[in-house]
Design the sequence.
């Protein structure tokens, strides 16, 4: 889409020309008429300068497409002059997270190419929207502007920080007929669940009785349920986590997930209030993408979600300041998980550290960094 626009300065200049000419004619002041003619000539020259437009094609790419908060990505702008004539200088304007990034592109020879590189700073967690990218031309006086949209929006995934962390020693797996997790190894020991057939599945695992009943081709899924596993639950209710506390909780959850993944053990992440349809539509791939998307929501229900968790292995709950009733329900999970660790992020606390109550270990901290330090003291047996 191409568009020629008169800027605010241009509108003021045009009004000045009209007023000056009218004043000169009505009052008989030739000087005002001369000024009006000069202003009109300036507008004409400015419009002619903008009328010389580049015929270019721009392609924007960002590498890598996934970074951690505070890390830069490299933006690359590939410019092609589609005309045989030289392209005049212009400005390429990209929107990065809603903020304009203006890149000056010098004159380009006919059919010439040029690459412009620029840093893309990721200063907050989330899906950083890029674009649209536009080509702009302005006259020296800033009276007119010509814009042409070049690309659609893009996305830069900004993951939360993951602090160096040692994983917990493995607890006892209680449920030997448990449900599968997204990271469990398939095809080993025990029947786990039924799911819809996807191309590449072994036809010998088709469950014909379910297929006949539902009309959908269904296969049996098996997992090795004795393999040590970790379940991480991230609370997202605004009543227990404010904006700053939630960001710290996300960082700590990311730290636990990455620590377990690095040693090759299965880990399942539950983000309370998360909508699977939104995750799929956004193209999230893996736990860190999901944590990049995580947001506080009133739909988060920590207590109601506990009984829906597949039992076995370690349970790590990351939340805010919890009351006695909630902690009591979490302590009941010791019948299904071992160990159970509850991390409470409370920026206002003055009494952080490790606390114990029957069945669970509690870490109270003001930040993810403090929680990580308490985690390591807990592993080392230091409860002070």
Sequence:
């Amino acid at each position: 889409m191409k568009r020629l626009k008169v800027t605010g300065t241009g509108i003021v200049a045009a009004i000045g020309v009209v007023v000056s000419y009218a004043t000169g004619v009505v009052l008989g002041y030739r000087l005002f008429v001369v000024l009006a003619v000069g202003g009109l000539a300036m507008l004409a020259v400015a419009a002619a300068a903008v009328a010389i437009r580049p015929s270019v094609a721009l392609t924007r790419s960002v590498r890598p497409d996934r970074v951690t908060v505070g890390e830069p990505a490299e933006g690359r702008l590939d410019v092609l002059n589609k005309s045989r004539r030289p392209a005049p200088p212009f400005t390429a304007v990209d929107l990065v997270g809603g903020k304009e990034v203006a890149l000056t592109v010098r004159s380009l020879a006919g059919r010439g190419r040029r690459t412009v590189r620029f840093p893309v700073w990721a200063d907050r967690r989330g899906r950083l929207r890029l674009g649209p990218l536009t080509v702009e031309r302005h006259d020296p006086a800033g009276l007119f502007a010509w814009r042409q949209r070049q690309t659609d929006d893009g996305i830069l995934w900004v993951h939360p920080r993951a602090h160096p962390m040692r994983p917990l020693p493995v607890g006892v797996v209680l449920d030997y007929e448990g449900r599968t997790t997204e990271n469990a190894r398939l095809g080993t020991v025990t029947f786990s669940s039924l799911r819809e057939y996807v191309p590449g599945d072994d036809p010998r695992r088709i469950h014909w009785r379910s297929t006949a009943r539902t009309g959908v081709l269904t296969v049996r899924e098996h997992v090795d349920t004795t393999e040590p596993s970790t379940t991480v639950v991230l609370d997202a209710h605004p009543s227990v986590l404010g904006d700053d506390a939630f960001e710290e909780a996300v960082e700590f959850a990311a730290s636990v997930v990455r620590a377990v993944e690095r040693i090759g053990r299965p880990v399942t992440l539950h983000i309370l209030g998360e909508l699977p349809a939104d995750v799929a539509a956004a193209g999230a791939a893996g736990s860190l993408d999901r944590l990049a998307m995580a947001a506080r929501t009133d739909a988060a229900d920590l207590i109601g979600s506990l009984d829906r968790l597949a039992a076995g292995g370690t349970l790590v709950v990351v939340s805010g300041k919890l009351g006695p009733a909630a902690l009591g329900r979490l302590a009941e999970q010791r019948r299904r998980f071992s160990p159970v660790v509850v991390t409470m992020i409370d920026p206002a606390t003055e009494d952080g550290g490790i606390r114990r109550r029957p069945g669970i270990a509690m870490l109270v901290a003001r930040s993810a960094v403090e929680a990580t330090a308490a985690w390591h003291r807990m592993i080392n047996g230091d409860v002070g």
